[in-house]
Design goal:
This protein has about 250 residues and is mostly helical. The protein has one domain. Helix content is about 75%, strand content about 0%. It has 12 helices and no strands. It is globular. The termini are far apart. The model has no long low-confidence stretch (mean pLDDT about 80).
Length: about 250
């Protein structure tokens, strides 16, 4: 009887935002499960609509941790483990370096910074070309981890380099899942050290992680059934619209 009462209390506390968050994280995790990229960008640009600005990056980190771990569990046999150590060392260095910036950055500007970064990476060819030319797993790990503290999802840095080194799609996505699991774990630990209380947002975190696991499962199933070029073109425009909406809502423009 007590269990039924507990379940009833949980169900009665579910809001429209909770349901929307599950759909959002399911969608973003499905994108990442199919293509290995794009899901984190969708999630980070939409989270400011659900949580306060200071909670966007840490909640994004713990949700993406769940998403990447679930993809890793589904495809671990394809991981190219030898590529991990240099990336991990770079991530630790990058997070230590960018933590200095984090202490002096006002959290209310984080959604705007994320939106501007996203627009630059989507539409400014020189910016995109600069990021795509990085050939070192140490440097990619440093930028993926360090920039991730500020903008949440710095784009497909790891996946771009992995696509140059590996040819099998399952190896690319599995190895990226390993790398990004570590990045997001490090991000979560860093924010906890700086005093962010994840428990205050446990309700949103639970629903976000549920969606992330569902999306990883769906993405793994449909990976070979989707036209990647057409979908990524539509995704680019979706991300652009979301970034512009974020700028309008969270800036003085």
């Amino acid at each position: 009887m007590q269990m039924i009462d507990s379940i009833s209390t949980i169900l009665s506390s579910i809001t429209l935002d909770d349901v929307s968050l599950v759909f959002l994280t399911t969608f973003s995790s499905t994108i990442a499960g199919v293509f290995g990229l794009g899901g984190g960008l969708v999630l980070v640009v939409m989270l400011p609509w659900f949580v306060p600005a200071n909670a966007v990056v840490p909640i994004h980190g713990i949700t993406q941790l769940g998403s990447n771990i679930s993809r890793l569990m589904l495809s671990y046999r394809y991981v190219v483990w030898s590529l991990g150590p240099r990336f991990i060392f770079g991530t630790v260095f990058g997070i230590a370096l960018f933590s200095l910036v984090l202490t002096s950055l006002s959290t209310k500007y984080i959604p705007v910074i994320i939106a501007i970064y996203l627009l630059l990476s989507l539409w400014i060819k020189a910016f995109e070309k600069l990021l795509s030319k990085i050939e070192s797993f140490f440097v990619v790990g440093m930028l993926q981890g360090g920039l991730g503290l500020i903008v949440g999802a710095p784009g497909p840095l790891a996946i771009t380099l992995l696509m140059k080194k590996l040819s099998h799609p399952d190896q690319i996505i599995a190895t990226a899942s390993l790398m990004l699991s570590f990045v997001n774990l490090a991000k979560v630990v860093t924010y906890a050290i700086f005093g962010f209380v994840f428990w205050d947002y446990i309700h949103s975190i639970i629903f976000a992680i549920i969606g992330a696991f569902i999306g990883s499962f769906i993405g793994t199933i449909i990976r070979k059934k989707v036209d990647p070029d057409r979908f990524l073109h539509l995704l680019k425009w979706l991300l652009t619209i979301l970034a512009l909406q974020t700028l309008i809502r969270f800036s003085f423009f």
